[in-house]
From TrEMBL, chain A:
GO terms for molecular function: electron transfer activity. It holds the Pfam family ETF. The lineage of its organism: Bacteria, Bacillati, Bacillota, Clostridia, Halanaerobiales. PANTHER family: ELECTRON TRANSFER FLAVOPROTEIN BETA-SUBUNIT (PTHR21294), PROTEIN FIXA (PTHR21294:SF17). Residues 21-215 form the Electron transfer flavoprotein alpha/beta-subunit N-terminal domain. This is Electron transfer flavoprotein small subunit. It comes from the Bacteria.
């Protein structure tokens, strides 16, 4: 089985701040693999253990995103590809998914992959849109929010997806894409042995010039229909009142306010 | 100034809302989308349209009209009976091609978040995820505001060069549209050929989740913490919850004592809630707890320590002994007293 896992490098913490120009302050914040992507990778590794084949990890990001591929090696991925170019910078979901899909052609998987696995969402942009958008770009089926792999053979897979009101069982023949939740498999820890074994293993970098599409306007900021106009802290100057007094007074105040709010 | 090529915005008009339905029942997010959609459409002097997909849809169509849609585009086809992402995307694509809306709104539900990106990709247009605030400019540009980084920052996002502009909107943040007296909307029937609706993904089985008593769905929560001295005192809190038609939530230490259950836990390692009203009783407001409830609409906190962290997030800080306040509040609600505002 040829399995491709999309992994994203994200800031270690969600407690990010915004500078006076409305830019995210990323300096001094450590990066990690998007937690959901560890579940994606684990799912891929287990499918490989069952059916053979290779697991390829792919990421789009700045040069330092290479680290996330090293992490993937330490968990057991066979190959790693970094899509990195100044022309890819500023990508929204459309441009990101397009670039990742283009990468497939170069990696040699365009006609020969079975399954693509993504995390259900990232912890920074957290749109949950990249997986479905890749599937659409490649014109293959996708199942989002996969919570368990029910059955898999060399030709098809049966998965359970966890929707808000229903649980559904979906089957498709390859190729296809799934995005996984944290219920799917418990990720293994990165192994020290694999770290030593893979420390010299190549990480392949692909730039704009390596991709089949030579129209720059499909990538990065230029290829992004959405523009982030401004980032700002959430409005936390909430209106607050503090009351003190006797139990009688306080219960009066609460009662009145609850009535005002039409809660009673 | 952005010099990249842009579409002719005048070729697109009206707001299109995707009506989500499951087994014939319209998902309530639909009426919220319609409420916002109506407001946006009025502001640019355009119409509110709704697209409804499924099979045997007469009742649902009437329901949508009763809520004041100007037009309902109905795709009543067996293949669309149950949600399946590719055929659904194809039907929406068809509708967008025929009607050229300037704005398309879809619920940020598990269906919408998976469906909308496929549709947006087909038009190579922008899709803003999980919006909590939407507004529109005179030139029909949609101003989309959404939380990211788990709510730690907000981003304002525009799609100025492409049409339609697409957004998914979070459930339970906008007002649902009220019913109208005399609906005047029009029903337009469309369909797509069977071949176009084919997909390799086969839905084998659908199980409706049991309606578990989940505190996530509760509109009112009374949350208890270690300020509760004895297990039997929980009855008092439960009584308040019952009177308000709400559910009992808890901090982690009470679960560790075995007084309350896991499924009631609010916080980082429990459930995230955003009810209309939450009253915390004897809770200090540890970050792990607050993470799970800080987006609630009205937060009342009762705590006898004026320095307690919970008061940083509470809209109404009640500094006092819960044993003094609670029994009296319960009595007052029971008696339905009319107390003069002091
Ligand atoms: C504050 C903020 C808000 C934003 N809002 C929007 C928006 O509303 N619409 C929009 O189009 N863009 C938006 N973006 C841009 C968007 O975050 C980026 O395009 C990002 O590259 C992909 O989106 P995501 O992080 O939401 O990924 P998600 O779709 O949440 O990620 C899901 C999965 O896709 C895969 N994946 C995602 N990115 C990569 C990658 N770079 N490399 C490899 N695999 C990947 C991973 O498997 C991941 O688990 C926003 C960015 C910021 C900073
Ligand atoms: C990794 C991790 C995850 C965690 N996840 C969660 C989680 O998901 N949810 C969670 O709740 N906790 C979680 N915790 C625990 C959390 O840190 C706090 O310990 C916990 O929330 C405190 O609960 P409390 O407010 O009930 O108790 P306390 O902190 O002991 O607060 C009791 C409060 O009651 C007040 N009080 C006492 N008597 C009265 C009275 N008579 N009248 C009025 N007020 C009174 C006191 O002033 C005090 O402020 C987690 C901790 C860790 C390390």
């Amino acid at each position: 089985m040829e399995i491709l896992v999309c992994v994203k490098q994200v800031p270690e913490t969600k407690d990010v701040e915004v500078d006076e120009n409305g830019n995210l302050i990323r300096d001094g914040v450590d990066s990690i693999m998007n937690p959901y992507d560890m579940y994606a990778l684990e799912t891929a590794l287990q499918l490989k253990e069952e059916h053979g084949g290779t697991v390829t990890a792919i990421t789009m990001g700045p040069p330092q995103a290479k680290e996330v591929l090293k992490e993937a090696y330490m968990m057991g991925a066979d190959r790693g590809y970094l899509l990195s170019d100044i022309k890819f910078a500023g990508a929204d979901v459309l441009a990101t998914s397009y670039t990742l899909a283009q990468g497939l052609e170069v990696i040699g998987l365009k006609d020969g992959y079975d399954l693509i696995i993504c995390g259900m969402e990232s912890t920074d942009g957290d749109t949950a849109q990249v997986g479905p958008a890749i599937a659409e770009t490649l014109d293959i089926p996708h199942v989002a929010y996969v919570s368990s792999i029910e059955e898999s053979t060399k030709d098809k897979i049966v998965v359970e997806k966890d929707m808000a009101d229903t649980i559904e069982i979906v089957e498709f023949s390859y190729p296809g894409l799934i995005t996984v939740t944290k219920h799917v498999k418990q990720p293994r820890l990165p192994s020290y042995k694999l770290k030593l074994e893979t420390q010299d293993r190549e990480i392949n970098t692909l730039t704009f010039d390596d991709l089949p599409d030579d129209d720059e306007t499909n990538f990065g900021l230029k290829g992004s229909p959405t523009q982030v106009e401004k980032v700002f802290p959430p409005d936390d100057d909430i209106e607050q009142v503090m009351w003190d007094g006797t139990g009688e007074e306080l219960s009066d105040k609460m009662y009145n306010e609850l009535k005002e709010l039409k809660m009673i | 100034e952005d010099e990249r090529e842009a579409v002719n915005k005048d070729e697109y008009s009206d707001v299109l809302v995707f009506a989500e339905q499951l087994e014939g029942e319209i998902h309530p997010v639909t009426y919220e989308l319609m409420g916002k959609g109506r407001e946006l459409a009025d502001k640019i002097d355009q119409e509110l349209h709704v697209i409804l997909l499924g099979h045997n849809l007469t009742d649902q169509t009437d329901e949508i009209l009763a809520h004041g849609a100007d037009k309902v585009y109905v795709y009543d086809q067996e293949e669309l009976h149950h949600y399946n992402v590719q055929p659904y995307a194809t039907a929406i694509e068809d509708c967008i091609k025929r009607t050229k809306p300037t704005i398309v709104l879809i619920g940020a539900t598990s269906i919408g978040r998976s469906l909308a990106p496929r549709v947006a990709t087909r038009f190579r247009t922008g899709l803003t995820a999980d919006c909590t605030i939407l507004d529109v400019r005179e030139n029909t540009d949609l101003v989309q505001t959404r939380p990211a980084f788990g709510g730690n920052i907000m981003a304002r996002i525009l799609t100025t060069r492409h049409r339609p502009q697409m957004a998914t909107m979070r459930y339970k943040v906008m007002e649902p549209i009220p019913r109208v007296e005399n609906p005047t909307g029009e029903v337009v029937e469309f369909s797509v050929s069977k071949e176009k609706l084919e997909t390799r993904a086969k839905i084998c089985e659908i199980t409706k989740k049991p309606d578990v008593e989940s505190i996530e769905d509760a509109d009112v929560i009374v949350a208890v913490g270690r300020g509760i001295r004895e297990e039997k005192d929980l009855e008092m809190a439960q009584e308040l919850a019952d009177l308000l038609g709400g559910k009992l939530g808890t901090t982690r230490p009470l679960i560790e004592k075995g007084w309350t259950e896991h499924k009631q836990q609010i916080g980082l390692s429990g459930r995230t809630v955003r009810p209309e009203l939450i009253i915390t009783l004897g809770i200090s407001g540890a970050v792990q707890f607050v993470a799970g409830m800080k987006n609630s609409e009205n937060i009342f906190a009762v705590n006898n320590d004026p320095e307690a962290n919970i008061f940083d997030v509470a809209h109404y800080g009640v500094v006092g002994d819960l044993y003094e306040v609670l029994p009296r509040l319960i009595e007052k609600i029971k008696n339905g007293e009319n107390i003069l505002a002091s």
